[in-house]
Specification:
This protein is mostly helical. It has one domain: Up-down Bundle (Growth Hormone, Chain: A). The longest helix is centred in the last third of the chain and has 33 residues. It is elongated, with a radius of gyration of 20 Å.
């Protein structure tokens, strides 16, 4: 409704229709919107998996997540260099989504006894893939737009990137005590009798399996959306 209002009624629109009037820019915006939905889920629920299923402390779960975050900066720089050298951006986006999808697919294999080396490999794939996408999505957005629209385009770009991760209040409100009720169980898992402790950890792993399926679907949608880009050179 906001986009419709901006395109038809306002005299000085914040988001002009020209920003999404071609498939390449539209693809860039959709990719920008979809990526944080998956990325924030991994950042939030990856440590939950380590704490609930590995028995890690909060600090240790952050350390175990380092294979994901330590790959971001180097890959961001290398992706930028490759775009400068080749004057192209579509191959980087396609490769990024493919790697990210492979990393998310690996998350479906996670169980309470999965070796950390396997998990680290999946996190590296996600880190490399997401950094390539983060570094590249604004190129298709700007490629076909007039220079005078750059300011509006980048504002909408920032909006898409920051808006996607938030959960609707009405959804969170359906959980008695909020979603924190699930987290309150984690600190006491280690004190449970062995059989019950194993059962609870398996339950956490199984519940996160649903999340990984959803994230795979969203990542696959991002890869398909990236195929809409019709302009490739800078």
């Amino acid at each position: 409704m906001f986009m419709l209002y901006e395109a038809t009624l306002t005299k000085n629109p914040i988001i002009t229709f020209a920003l999404v009037s071609n498939r390449t820019s539209m693809s860039g915006y959709l990719q920008t919107f979809l990526l944080p939905v998956v990325s924030y889920n991994i950042l939030y629920f990856g440590p939950v998996y380590f704490q609930a299923c590995f028995g890690s402390s909060a600090i240790c779960s952050g350390v175990l997540s380092l294979p994901l975050v330590t790959t971001l900066e180097p890959c961001l720089m290398l992706t930028g260099i490759s775009i400068t050298a080749t004057k192209q951006y579509r191959p980087q986006l396609w490769l990024g989504w493919a790697l990210y999808l492979a990393g998310m697919g690996g998350m479906l294999t996670l169980a309470v006894d999965t070796p950390f080396a396997h998990i680290a490999g999946f996190l590296v794939l996600q880190g490399v893939g997401s950094s390539m996408i983060y570094a590249t999505t604004y190129f298709p957005i700007l490629a076909l737009l007039p220079i005078m629209e750059n300011a509006h385009a980048l504002v909408f770009f920032a909006f898409c990137r920051s808006f996607a991760p938030w959960l609707p209040i009405c959804f969170v409100g359906e959980f008695p005590g909020g979603v924190s009720i699930a987290y309150s169980v984690i600190p006491v898992i280690g004190t449970l009798p062995e059989l019950l402790r194993i059962e609870v950890r398996i339950t956490f792993a199984d519940s996160l399996d649903v999340l990984w399926h959803v994230c795979i679907g969203i990542t696959g949608a991002g890869l398909l959306v990236s195929l809409l880009m019709g302009f490739n050179t800078l």
